[in-house]
Amino acid sequence: MVSAAHDDGALFRTRQPEPERPTLAHPSGMGPTGRPYRDIPDPQPLSSHGPATVIAMCNQKGGVGKTTSTINLGASLAEYGRRVLLVDLDPQGALSAGLGVPHHELDLTVHNLLVEPRVAIDDVLMRTRVDGMDLLPSNIDLSAAEIQLVTEVGREQTLGRVLHPILDRYDYVLIDCQPSLGLLTVNALACADSVLIPMECEYFSLRGLALLNDTVDKVRDRLNPRLKLEGIVVTMFDARTLHSREVMNRVVEVFGDVVFDTVITRTVRFPETSVAGEPITTWAPKSAGADAYRSLAREVIHRDTAPQS
Asked: Which residues form a coiled coil (predicted)?
């Protein structure tokens, strides 16, 4: 296993004073989703690790905060003592770049694991700057994988075969899918336990959920019967705009408790962290954005550990 380099964005590493955090709970006790605010306590530490819960971070619409959510949810889960693996399944390599990895210079990436059976996963694994969080990086080479896999037997299960040997090392595997519903995304859904959908708080994102849900249903029926919907997290929320509030009300009306209580609001901190190559939990640990992703991590752990009714 190699360590990730973090040279990109060195000029942006001077942190500015953090503003006072706004509270996510309304004085009336109502959360931003319009439901009563539910305080979930910090999760208990683990005595051992694994096997991992595999979560596909998926939305066929780009620019919804999917990669940002993968990085910061992963870092927040690691803060709570969970061992986390992030898988960059997007040929753009945004997840790798967002962690400061010079992905264009890499000799081995997820692409090699998918198309070259002799490549060992430990030769591709990278440690990140976050304790307890590792990365399988990607770059533009991955764009060829869909063509190379299309004639393979069991092509939809390729990623699952790659990840299977190391699931016992981790508590969570978060797969950052590309913004499409092609073969790479189907591979992620075929090996995942659940799907977490980051959804920008705007009308066209809401319309796209129906198509994504249809794909999830087809994968569940044909490839992965255990696949479930982990939840929908609303991103880029701006409570000052009527449009954001209307979309929020509609998504909660349609999907109910599938929608996480945690809402990710717009902030300049997230673009800063992308350039700096680290999560918001370390770049601006006292910011509202960092608190929001810690809250999301608590919800994810709570949902995964709560007794099933």
From this structure: none
